[in-house]
Design brief:
5% strand; mainly alpha; 12 helices
């Protein structure tokens, strides 16, 4: 509930930024950039799954090639009460995974060849549960809305800056007005980007929690995240930068505190700490029986 409220507040902040933009920018300019941004993001929304899968060089994995993986996806999708997502394989040695699809009926779970080799099946089950949680929570829809609002603010702010540089002041406007417009053009895109990244990080925390409950095994996902984060530092990724935000851990590891502000993912140590707070004493008594589903009873699933 806390992460859902945070997401609503962050979306509200983007909307406020859009209203502020309308107050600075002439209505004729605003309409042009709103239409442009909406057209771009609607296209991305309807075709994002195909675009992302093509960029990742992913191929659909036939059931006969990995029946156990399909069975795992099917079981967790049933727990989440969504249709079974399609399963794709990505030819990348770096262990990672992502989900795409604008709604549960079009869901896709994609795993790299590296993740299947690195993780044991219990840990991979935790990762799959996380990705199915993204589909269940309709995170693709939310990220598209956030991207649309952030894009409108960014394009509009650029128009304000261009107008100021070209001497767009009218009668009754002082020099301070032009300076304010340029300042807005610099700060608005930065603020919109930070809010958009905040939404992405909030949805990752929520997917961790939802996925841990679906799998009834928080420690499996925590262990997987630690392995994936360590591997991201030593195994180069072939992922396209445009798809980085979709993966369960950032495929481009590294960077200090400043770069973390602009990261689409929360720090792994924070995610692991939250997951381990979900573990009940009952978990340690029943852990060996996770394959038989008794852990799910402890979560009321």
């Amino acid at each position: 509930m806390k992460n859902q409220l945070k997401t609503v507040l962050l979306l509200g902040a983007l909307s406020v930024g859009l209203i502020a933009l309308g107050g600075v920018l002439a209505p004729s300019y605003l309409f042009l950039f709103v239409v442009l941004a909406l057209a771009m993001n609607l296209g991305a929304y309807f075709f994002s799954d195909r675009i992302v899968l093509r960029l990742s060089r992913a191929r659909e994995l036939p059931r006969e090639e990995a029946p156990w993986l399909h069975a795992m996806v099917e079981e967790l999708a049933a727990r989440a009460e969504i249709p079974k997502p399609r399963v794709f394989s990505i030819p990348d040695d770096q262990p990672n995974a992502f989900a795409t699809g604008r709604d549960p009926s079009r869901g896709v779970v994609a795993v790299t060849e590296g993740i299947v080799r690195l993780l044991d099946r219990r840990e991979l089950r935790g990762v799959i549960a996380h990705e199915i949680a993204h589909i269940k929570n309709r995170d693709i829809l939310l990220s598209t809305i956030a991207a649309a609002l952030a894009s409108i603010i960014t394009y509009g702010a650029h128009a304000v800056g261009l107008s100021g540089l070209l001497g767009g002041n009218r009668e009754g406007e002082g020099e301070g007005s032009g300076f304010s417009g340029l300042l807005f053009a610099l700060l608005a895109p930065l603020g919109a980007t930070l809010v958009q990244l905040g939404i992405s990080r909030s949805r990752e925390f929520l997917a961790d929690e939802t996925g841990a409950k679906l799998a009834a095994d928080p420690e499996a996902l925590a262990s997987a995240l630690l392995k994936l984060e360590a591997a991201a530092h030593v195994v180069p990724s072939e992922a396209a930068p445009a798809t980085a935000s979709l993966y369960i851990v950032s495929p481009f590891a590294g960077g200090g505190t400043i770069l973390r502000w602009f990261s689409t993912h929360p720090p792994v140590e924070a995610r692991v700490a939250r997951l381990r707070r979900l573990i009940s004493p009952r978990y340690f008594d029943q852990r060996p029986s996770w394959r038989r589903g008794t852990l799910a009873q402890g979560w009321g699933l």
